[in-house]
């Protein structure tokens, strides 16, 4: 509103400039002058609005009469036909400016509706979607306040400098019964947001007057936005349920596969003992030792499977204790001896290595996942290397295999849950969970897990801080 006087003055100055040009600089006849004035009025209406154009058309009519209709130099008109011409000019200018102003307003309404629809489609941020929706509505349409009552949740969302304190009941009626309310004095309007003719929410807006068609267009976009948000929420719930079912299936498959080896060895040992009760004590002790070791291995597998399910569905709790990382690595390799078998395993530990804070149980799971990955995806006659190096701020552990490598486009996805390379997913068994869980464990320790791969060599690099950074993350 502060710019309105300036626009009015500029409009009147434009009329005076046209008068000067058409009478002094480039003298023209009355017809040309009339069209020039009319063109100026149309430009003003398109650029600023009807008020500025109306004032400009009145001044243009006076100038047209004074400078171009005889007797020139007076505001009287000698020929009655010129009264008709003057009146026609004024009416034409006013109607044209009015139509131009209406077209401008319509264009602005369409542009704002488009901006609002785009904001709904691209909405991304924190907080409930309806709260972001009313915020965008107030911002784009320059409202002093906006409020939305969601029928499903029963929540009222507000936005704008001036909030609504007394509209909950009216909004609720609009959401449940489709009622509407207009307060012209308070510049407030309440309408029902409908989807398939059924009210789903109540919308209140406060600010500059809007035509009902525009308000209805806003309500329709709000309905579409709410429905889209609910569809996305439902899709996320379906995806969560699908992944939960996939997790259950993959864990069962993994457990069945992993449990076969220790169960087979335990069964072989007990069968041999039962078949030969008179076997020498030394041989019996050897069989019992095998059964006992594999029973411990089986217990570890069960604990790991349960832990993997917990890690994949809940917040990871880290209980730090000062630990010896090389000793932890040796415990993992010893428990995986049946998998390593005759495989060349190169271990190099930089000396001296500091004891560092870590959750031994979780770090063992992460190392086991990385080592199992290296053994599965590299030829059986190639070595797997484990290297540990220390520094002031962190300790690094690298596990390197000599498999075919991970293609560059896939390296950004390998830590995603359930992701498996298309080239091996049908050839090598796996769940797509191991690397994701290992990555989560390292991040919970305030460390990291990265990969560097090229054809013939892949290295997974774990980093762990040397200082205690907190627990129960």
Overall domain count: 4
- Predict the CATH topology of the largest domain: Heat Shock Protein 90
Number of DSSP helices?
13
Q: How far is the first residue's CA from the last residue's CA?
A: 55 Å
Poorly predicted ranges: none
Shape: elongated
How many strands, what sense, and barrel or not for the largest sheet? 5 strands, antiparallel
User: What's the CATH C level of the largest domain?
Assistant: Alpha Beta
CATH superfamily of the largest domain: Histidine kinase-like ATPase, C-terminal domain
Decide which structural class fits the backbone. Answer: alpha+beta
Strand order of the largest sheet: 2-1-5-4-3
CATH architecture descriptor text of the largest domain: 2-Layer Sandwich
Number of beta-strand segments:
12
N-to-C SSE series? HHHHHEEHEEEHHEHHEEHEEHHEE
Radius of gyration (Å)? 40 Å
Provide the helix percentage: 55-70%
Descriptive account of the structure:
The chain is an alpha+beta fold and 473 residues long. The chain has four domains: 4-117, no CATH class; 124-210, Beta-Lactamase (2-Layer Sandwich); 241-313, Orthogonal Bundle (Helix Hairpins), CATH 1.10.287.130; 321-465, Histidine kinase-like ATPase, C-terminal domain (Heat Shock Protein 90, 2-Layer Sandwich). Helix content is 56%, strand content 15%. The strands form three sheets. The chain has a five-stranded antiparallel beta sheet with strand order 2-1-5-4-3, sandwiched between helices. A five-stranded mixed beta sheet has the order 7-9-10-12-11. The two termini are 55 Å apart.
């Amino acid at each position: 509103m502060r710019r309105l006087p300036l626009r009015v003055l500029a409009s009147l100055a434009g009329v005076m400039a046209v008068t000067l040009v058409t009478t002094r600089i480039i003298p023209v006849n009355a017809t040309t002058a009339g069209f020039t004035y009319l063109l100026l009025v149309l430009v003003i209406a398109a650029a600023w609005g009807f008020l500025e154009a109306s004032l400009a058309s009145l001044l243009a009519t006076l100038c047209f009469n004074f400078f171009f209709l005889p007797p020139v130099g007076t505001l009287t008109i000698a020929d009655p036909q010129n009264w008709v011409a003057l009146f026609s000019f004024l009416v034409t200018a006013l109607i044209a400016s009015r139509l131009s102003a209406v077209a401008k307003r319509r264009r602005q309404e369409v542009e704002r509706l488009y901006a609002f629809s785009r904001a709904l489609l691209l909405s991304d941020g924190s907080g409930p979607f309806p709260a972001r929706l009313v915020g965008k509505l107030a911002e784009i349409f320059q409202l002093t306040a906006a409020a939305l009552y969601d029928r499903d949740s029963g929540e009222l969302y507000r936005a704008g400098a001036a909030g609504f304190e007394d509209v909950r009941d009216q909004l609720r009626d609009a959401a449940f019964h489709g009622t509407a309310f207009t307060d012209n004095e308070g510049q407030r309007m309440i309408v029902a947001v409908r989807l398939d003719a059924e009210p789903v929410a109540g919308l209140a807006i406060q600010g500059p007057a809007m035509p009902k068609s525009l308000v209805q267009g806003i309500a329709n976009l709000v309905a579409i936005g709410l429905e889209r948000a609910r569809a996305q929420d439902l899709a996320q719930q379906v995806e969560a349920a699908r992944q939960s079912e996939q997790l259950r299936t993959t864990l069962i498959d993994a457990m069945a596969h992993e449990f076969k080896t220790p169960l087979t060895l335990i069964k072989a040992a007990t069968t041999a003992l039962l078949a030969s009760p008179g076997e020498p004590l030394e041989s019996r002790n050897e069989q019992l030792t095998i059964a006992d070791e594999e029973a411990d291995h089986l217990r570890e597998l069960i604990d790991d499977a349960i832990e993997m399910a917990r890690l994949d569905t809940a917040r990871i709790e880290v209980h730090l204790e000062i630990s010896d990382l090389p000793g932890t690595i040796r415990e993992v390799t010893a428990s995986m001896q049946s998998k390593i078998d005759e495989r060349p395993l190169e271990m190099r530990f930089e000396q001296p290595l500091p004891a560092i804070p870590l959750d031994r149980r979780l770090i063992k799971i992460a190392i086991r996942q990385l080592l199992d990955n290296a053994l599965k995806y590299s030829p059986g006659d190639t070595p797997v290397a484990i290297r540990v190096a220390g520094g002031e701020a962190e300790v690094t552990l690298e596990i390197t295999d000599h498999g075919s490598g991970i293609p560059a486009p896939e390296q950004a996805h390998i830590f995603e849950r359930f992701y498996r390379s298309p080239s091996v997913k049908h050839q090598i068994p796996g769940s797509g969970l191991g690397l994701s869980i290992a990555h989560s464990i390292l991040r919970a320790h305030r460390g990291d897990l990265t990969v560097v791969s090229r054809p013939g060599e892949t290295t997974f690099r774990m980093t762990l801080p040397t200082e205690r950074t907190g627990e129960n993350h």
